[in-house]
Hints:
About 30% of the residues lie in helices and about 25% in strands. It is an alpha+beta fold. The chain has three domains: about 10-75 and about 120-195 and about 290-365, FAD/NAD(P)-binding domain (3-Layer(bba) Sandwich); about 200-285 and about 370-420, 2-Layer Sandwich (D-Amino Acid Oxidase, Chain A, domain 2), CATH 3.30.9.10; about 465-550, Glutaredoxin (3-Layer(aba) Sandwich), CATH 3.40.30.120. Helix 1 (about 20-30) packs parallel to helix 9 (about 315-335). The longest helix is centred in the middle third of the chain and has 24 residues, at about 345-370. Residues about 5-10 have low confidence and may be disordered.
Amino acid sequence: MKGVTDLNHRIAIVGAGAAGLVSAVLLRQRGIAVDIFDDGDGPCTLPQAHVINTRTSEILAEIGAFEALRAVAAPIDRVESIAWVESLTGRRFGRMDLIKDAASGALRAGASAVHALNVGQNHFEQVVAARFAELGGSVRYRNRVVGSQIDGDKAVLSIRNADGDISKYDYDYVLACDGARSSVRESLGIAMVGPPSIARYASAYFTADLSHLIGDIRGPVVFVGGPDVRGVLIGFDIANSWALMCVIPPDSTPDDFGPDVMRELIYRAIGDRTATIRLDGVGSWNMSAQVADDFRRGPFFLVGDSAHRFPPTGGLGLNTGVQDAHNLAWKLAFVLQGKAPAALLESYAEERMPVARANCAHSLENAMKLAEIDAALGVSFLAPVDPAVVTRAETSGPALAIDGEDGDEARRAVAQAIEAQRPHFDSLTHELGYVYGACEPYSEAGPYAPSVRQGGRLPHALVDGPQGSVGLHTLCAGDSLTLLVGKDVDIGTLSDLPGEVALRRISDDLPDMLTGSDMILVRPDGHVAWNGRDQDGAGLAAALNAILRSDMLTTV
């Protein structure tokens, strides 16, 4: 890593969750020092989110954290399906295999050099915080931001430390990564658009060996629809670390779902009272579907949950936040290092807000679509749970339409309703297919199809490198724009490229991507800025001008 200096600029990050920590590492890798404040005592201790999608895994690989996270994630052979059950020991209503068939498995395997992970957010934060420390950074825990304001072109933070003393600091830029109830966003008066509350959930995190109960359920999500308890069992390592989530009735409060109630609900959800359960924590959370009406206010940027709140259906919340950070970090580095004027930063909100809105809509649609299974089966998996049920004797489930010899039609309907949930749990389009600058960021219909498209992520491919095969994204990650050129391009015509552009000749023909005289200009975040032929110097110059906001380039 190059030496870290403040470059006569200062950046603050408020919040050391997933988005804040990834932002800090990405900036520090580019030689940018940051102050990062968090009002907690350290990385989160409960698993919370658990889906790390393929694009986020690519970003983790870029910052040197993927392998450490893969080592603590659930083994791939335990992340095979989503199930709907009465309880872990009761009836199996149906399951959906996450890899539908050989063709879809091959598509997913070939789409990236890495793969999605199922791992608790506590491990995510611990690994990325350790990576930040390796780079010489440190998080200022127990420091709460109590005020945020703009003074001229500066961002001013009022911060209360662990001793209760309040100090003011001026920064050139501040990244508000302080979560769904962001105090920075509220101080700036940025509104959230969308329903503030769709449902309230009680949650219980617990440790238990459920291997003798899982059987053919080898997956991270189990919907439970028993007569006494309804909700979702989440498996983090899908061995010992679990959570139960259930909907709180309108006339109840989170206090009604204390440790004793949640322990009893867990036993009824798993159906085995001989299991040893260690309750690690209970709490509650609010499911909403909101996106901020702006992601920037002067020198302040909203990143992650401060900018958007999604239903968890689809696992897009944490991932969208990390991808926000990836979009912004290189732009801040370009501006601070004098490679581009501050106008480049205007593109952050322009590019990320449409993606956040689309991901919010997709997550909400996934949540609503689950009702199709309820209707087909006659079981409401996410109906509110009466906490008083734990004081009553356990009951048996009612007879269902799928039971008996006459249930064939009902069973087919349930199977069809479960398969209709596939976009919820298996969508490479939403993992890799968002396109910046498009009318709709996910405008492509049908399954994900890798292609070179301006604004889209550069497709994955392996090419020959000095130490053997290397992924194209590895060649393009770093501090520069990258111009990939085909084997027939005359390098001499590119002698006037600005210093912000690294030239990489690809000797291989890459079908449907880079052949012969093709050229692809790739941003440091792996998205395509321009693609064309070697004779189109004016087009390349225009693309460079659009990024560098420079009128100096007329042709290359």
